Amino acid sequence: MFEAGESAGQHVASGAPAGQPGLDGLSSADVLARTNAGQTNSIPGATSRSVWDIVRANVLTLFNAIVAGCFVLLLVLDQWRDALFGFSALGNSLIGIVQEYRAKQSLDRLAILHAAQSRVIRDGSTRLVPAEALVPDDIVLLSAGEQVAADVRLLDGGYVEADESFLTGESAPVPKQPGAALLSGSLIMAGSGRAVVVRVGPDTFAYKLTAEARRFALVTSEIRSGLDKVLRVITWLLLPTAVLVTHAQVQNAGGWEAAFSSGQWIPAAVGLVASIMSMIPLGLVLLTSVAFAVGGVRLAGHMVLVQELAAVEVLARVDVLCLDKTGTLSSGAMTFDAVHDAGAPPAEGWRKALEWFGAKEEASTTAKSIGDAFPAADVLPEASSVPFTSALKWSSVTFPPGSQAAGTWVLGAPDFVLAELSSGAPARRSAAALASTGLRTLALAHMPGPLPVSEQGVAVPAGLIPVVLLTFREDIRKEAPATLAYFRQQGVALKIISGDDPRTVAVLARAVGLGPGGAYDARKLPTDPLLLQETVETHHVFGSVTPSQKRDMVQALKRGGHTVAMTGDGVNDVLALKEADLGIAMDTASPATKAVARLILLDGRFDRLPAVVAEGRRAISNIERVSMVFLSKTVYITVISLAFALLLWPFPFLPRQVSVLDGLTIGLPAFFLALQPSAQRYEAGFLKRSLAFSVPAGVCGALCVLAVSLYARFAAPGSAEATQSAAVITLALVASWILVTASRPLTWTKTLILAGMYAGLALLFTVPPSKEFFRLDWPPTDLLAASVAVAVGGSIIIEAIRYVQRRLAGRSAD
User: Fold this and answer.
1) Ranges for the P-type ATPase A domain (predicted)?
2) Residue 159: which residues within 8 A CB-CB, separation 6 or more?
3) Can 341 be counted among the known catalytic residues?
């Protein structure tokens, strides 16, 4: 492996196979020989989590280890009837694996269909090949917006600026001169050239160091981080609770010696397992994964590629959507409009200069439209050139003396090319008038000699003479106005951030319904972070924005507490897309842009975004409902375990009874509820809201069970089976009402799910085989009446808790 600063040429010189390519590239026979030798750029692994990763995430967890241990213990003790939770946990894991694997297959198919491609020279002609088909010594064409797919060495005549932040963490683009190494994973930010491939596949620098971490870095998910916090708390509670419950179970059996001599330690162990297993919210993590996976599959049906499943949640939380103009609000296609007078007779050779700008294979969409308007029979040889960058806003070419277009020609944004020219006033006025009509405008200027270069680099010389103005037309996406109106209705602030002339951007902003008014000229943006934050908050349309300014603006919005999404398709959007909470790339995006985006609109339809929002909202609102139910169960079981342990009473349920209650009042209904459609708008504080209901509701449920147990022990003494049945009835009614409360607003589908739950509870107490297996029977009339009365009272209190929680949440939102 060569280091970032080492010349790749040393590697080629020492270890290249026979048949080194010339300017014509490799021959088909050379490519075939290298391919047969296994020297391809194919990297082991997939575009998403591997099958082993999915299995490990769903099976090899701390809670599953506890479940497995308890399951084996009960089997060894011949208490298999109470080991039902093991099959439930196994089912949870299998469902999670199947759902995530289906999502993986769907997303992998899309990712393969839209995988990055590279332009290579083979057999003397330019070809487009999959990045994985690159072989050593291939000649690759590089240009702005592309991602380097293998380790390469830049050949003579090339100059690029590479973003290596994926590899080194350095955010500033790094200039690369001929002979310099370019590592796979780098993004070409500016310039163009040819490079020879020196290392491919697993031998590349990026694969060995950082490709995996870069590919699978996780988006910030409030749901995932909130649940992780809850699971950590539950993990810490398990051990002390288990110790207290064990002590109570053994003391209730007469002490350790008596328990072991009489065999009562077996029921004590069963009670311990029941309490521990009930505290673990096994299905909660499963349903979260399933909800994300199903969201990814649904979005794939909308031609939206989700590069990380939890990203479906993030757009539902977004309150600021930043939009690039070209390729996002407009179609991205640039059509040449006309040539306009710049105020002076054009210099000789300007057409030849435009032919050169439009003839480059690496040309941008604007340059290609120039090439279509000014096709070149033969392109003049250059003496030197400066590539276009988003920071410079211009490019240049110098032709030698005696040629048809001798001198230096500068093509770029009028505000940058003409700004310092004493003779440029008429051209500046003409360019401003053209830009104000919504036309994209470029200026072509000329000077007789070469472009002067100072220690500070190249700059537009004062001796330039304006030659002509060029205008281009862009088509606004027809779906853009309606889509933006949707986001405004949803309370999402919109920011148009474009590198184009502010006047052109203002015209487009009015066309898509953002109202009258001009665009803020980003050249006047303050550098002070606080002033920048204030400016970005108060203005909504910006023009002449550089790539670094786009990034700074996104950072300023995030400092203001906003969740920011950024859409774009150009390499000038890469920095901002990386910084945003959610980067969204269009289908026309450069490979570099797609590499950093979390969502890719594969068919380029901007109106897909509302569907993405809907999926995010479905995921958040349904998982919030499900978490309220699961966490309520964890709370009431924990409180019951601790209360009965402190009273030295046996745990009031058998594991099989808790398992069936979980399945009927939580597991099965929650699984269907987690996949229901939901248009509920997102509000921050997912975990806070869940706990605000779950904790008091869970405590209420625990107190109801404790009250019935006290009544059964002191007011209506009876058999242990009757007391257990009364406790099961009480908890079933309270837990089912928690589910009803969390399911609102009710729909026909939800009503059927809840009706099925109550039917299952009724069958549990009426079907003889069920009653016998679960050791349930109707308790005496007075105890049954007490159970129902306490459960009704508890349900009323739960209603009051939900009402108060909603009122408090409404006030905090106001």
Assistant:
1) 114-211
2) 175, 176, 177, 178, 191, 192, 193, 387
3) no
